[in-house]
Write a structure and sequence with these properties.
It is built from 19 helices and no strands. With 422 residues, it is mostly helical. The chain has two domains: 187 residues, Up-down Bundle (Growth Hormone, Chain: A), CATH 1.20.1250; 210 residues, Up-down Bundle (Growth Hormone, Chain: A), CATH 1.20.1250.
Length: 422
């Protein structure tokens, strides 16, 4: 545990997190890198469309942001623990800056543009996983870590609300290639902040100290496996309304304004829920409500079966987003369950799986809507999601009791050894 967290109160609050200088550097770098990613996605999509006039290829640039996550998360996950964290974070930012810089070169072909987009997506889970593991080094593995993770998620959701708007405005003033050039600066600024604002720490896993558990071994631990599924599977269902926002807005006749509101409602609810749980609830309370919220978070989707109008639909999405505050409790359980020496690869696996299942969920949402209609697809996702979440909550209870039983046995064995030693 870092020195900064010693003696922290039971409920730290967001202000205590910002009091840690290293976290401020990580937070500022996260804001810059998120804006860089979002603006580059918009600018690249527009650039590809300008070059090809193909809606399919333009949309493909967004899809490529999801698909390579699985590759990067499995093949590159060991990097997060084999190398010092600061070196990994700075290196990832520099790779992203280099890839985007190549996109700005006049005459760059479509194939190379899409390949560079894939490279960004392959690097992304390593960066995210290493940064999450670094938070535990900076803030400790207690309440400050949970609040720090929450703040980074809030930034990510807020960036979706602000970043796309800023990106669109930026493209009205400059060309797509110039917009991409600006994002090179954001990645370089992020790398500089991480290099100068965080201290050097040795790699968690050193070569020659034995083979650390890989993804299969991590997933083989029942407690870790259940917690990973609790992060992944609800996310696969929660993205369904977002994936179908355009056809749903068309059905409602709400136009582009309605589409924008539908895209914003879920992130707004998520930010509100996280802020309330982080600022108003202590760590024990957040853990107590984690499983009930998990089971209830997708329940509002069932309201789509009642054919709600725009206002009611927005309310349902905000409520569902607020329910995702259960992740604060999951963060605490996950960091406890994973050994420190493999925390980087575990977090990388978590990040990669999360993005991959969201991409799969969006694709399946389109297939379902094509077959049964948008409203039925969203309501069906709600039914399936609630059942899945309830099953995961039950499994989490079982693994928690098994974990507590294992700890009690260890304590008794340790006490017996001490008595024998005497």
């Amino acid at each position: 545990m870092s020195a900064s967290t010693q003696g922290a109160p039971v409920s730290a609050g967001y202000g205590r997190v910002f009091a840690v200088p290293e976290f401020r550097a990580v937070f500022a770098a996260h804001v810059l890198s998120m804006l860089g990613v979002i603006v580059s996605e918009i600018a690249l999509s527009v650039l590809v469309y300008d070059l090809t006039r193909s809606p399919l290829l333009s949309a493909l640039t967004f899809a490529l942001g999801f698909l390579p996550y699985a590759v990067g998360g499995t093949l590159l996950a060991p990097v997060a623990d084999r190398l010092p964290a600061r070196r990994v974070l700075v290196g990832c930012d520099l790779v992203c800056a280099g890839c985007v810089a190549l996109m700005t070169v006049p005459g760059t072909g479509i194939g190379l543009l899409l390949a560079l987009r894939c490279a960004l997506a392959v690097v992304s889970p390593v960066f995210s996983g290493t940064r999450m593991a670094t938070l535990a080094d900076v803030l400790g593995d207690g309440d400050l870590f949970v609040l720090g993770r929450s703040l980074l998620r809030i930034v990510a959701q807020s960036a979706l609300l602000v970043g796309y708007g800023l990106g669109g405005l930026l493209l009205t003033a400059v060309s797509p290639r110039r917009a991409l050039l600006i994002t090179v600066g954001t990645f370089l600024a992020s790398a500089t902040l991480l290099r100068c604002g965080t201290r050097h720490r040795t790699a968690r896993t050193r070569r020659g100290t034995g083979t650390p558990p890989g993804p299969r071994t991590l997933v083989g631990d029942r407690r870790v496996r259940v917690l990973l599924l609790m992060f992944w599977l609800p996310a696969a269902f929660s993205v369904v309304p977002e994936a179908l926002a355009a056809p749903y807005a068309d059905e409602l006749g709400s136009g582009s304004a309605g589409l924008g509101l539908l895209m914003c409602a879920l992130p707004v609810g998520t930010v509100a829920g996280e802020l309330f749980a982080g600022a108003r609830l202590g760590p024990r309370a957040r853990e107590r409500i984690a499983l009930p919220l998990l089971c209830l978070s997708l329940l509002p989707y069932l309201g789509y079966a009642l054919r709600p109008g725009l206002t009611a639909s927005l309310l349902l999405l905000v409520l569902s987003g607020a329910g995702s505050a259960y992740t604060l409790g999951l963060d605490q359980w996950f960091v406890r369950a994973v050994p420190e020496e493999v925390r980087g690869r575990a977090m990388t696996l978590l990040s990669a799986g999360l993005m991959t299942v969201q991409g799969v969920g969006m694709a399946l949402a389109g297939v379902a809507a094509q077959t049964v209609g948008v409203r039925t697809a969203v309501a069906g996702a709600g039914v399936a999601g609630v059942l899945c979440c309830c099953a995961l909550a039950a499994a989490a209870r079982v693994t928690e009791r098994a974990q507590e039983g294992g700890r009690a046995t260890e304590s008794r064995d340790r006490a017996a050894r001490n008595m024998t030693g005497r």
